[in-house]
Amino acid sequence: GDSVTQMEGPVTLSEEAFLTINCTYTATGYPSLFWYVQYPGEGLQLLLKATKADDKGSNKGFEATYRKETTSFHLEKGSVQVSDSAVYFCALRGITGGGNKLTFGTGTQLKVEL
Amino acid sequence: DAGVIQSPRHEVTEMGQEVTLRCKPISGHDYLFWYRQTMMRGLELLIYFNNNVPIDDSGMPEDRFSAKMPNASFSTLKIQPSEPRDSAVYFCASSHSWGSNQPQHFGDGTRLSIL
Predict the structure, then answer these.
(1) Which of A26, B66, B69, B95 has its CA 20 to 30 A from that of A73?
(2) CB contact under 8 A, B100 and A93
(3) Residue B39: is its pLDDT beyond 90?
(4) Alpha-carbon dihedral B71, B30, B80, B82, rounded to 10 degrees
(5) Distance CA B81, CA A62 (A)
(6) Which of residues 76-105 of A touch B (CB under 8 A)?
(7) How many Å apart are CA B76 and CA A112, to the nearest integer?
(8) For A24-47, what is each residue's pLDDT tens digit?
């Protein structure tokens, strides 16, 4: 079945540091890929998405490129801020369950310090 | 536009009581999902509906859990009787079915504590 593997957290960075959160996936066919962010006490919010190979999703300075050859969708940001502290979830939407279910990774907590 | 609305935001009740969680999806969305989030198990899909019909309830942990969607704008998740291990944050999400790239939109969740 479909699966998503994320790097373990927490990741602790200083403000303005470069961020990478690794995400790899296993799926049949050509899934759509997503990054969601969850701030404390809130639900998950869509951060960015990519729907086909080599697509780059971007939002709020975050980027991720759909790499089919390495089945990866790593999240990057050039300069993190304290306000980026949250839990980040990688997810895919494949053909399992008729293409309407999301498969989530376990989440990676990011802490950004001054 | 209003997002997914869940109520209550917090619920504290004693073991054995019935608990009902409510969700109003985004208007026009034809898929509705119920998730449970815990530290130990992460985010788990419990059940999802399409056009008010339950499609996959394989994630529902026990017969104590039930979910209904009587119309396109309302769904409930009920736990009866509740147990301390049901304590978690329960999220509702909705999406549009058009195209596989449609994301799910989440509510802010109900934080449930069973004493």
Answers:
(1) B95
(2) yes
(3) no
(4) -140
(5) 44
(6) 89, 93, 95, 97-102, 104
(7) 37
(8) 999 988 899 999 999 988 899 999
Q: Closest chain B residue to A106 measured between Cα atoms?
A: B42
Cα(B34)–Cα(B114) distance, integer angstroms: 19
Task: Give A33 or B100, the one with higher predicted confidence.
Answer: A33
Handedness of CA B55, B57, B63, B69 (dihedral sign): negative
Rounded Cα distance, B107 and B90, in Å = 9
Q: What is the DSSP string of chain A?
A: --EEEE--S-EEEETT--EEE-EEEE-SS--EEEEEEE-TTS-EEEEEEE-STT-EEEETTEEEE-BTTTTB--EEESS--GGG-EEEEEEEE-SGGGGT-EEE---EEEEEE-
User: Chain A contacts of B45, Cβ < 8 Å?
Assistant: 101-102
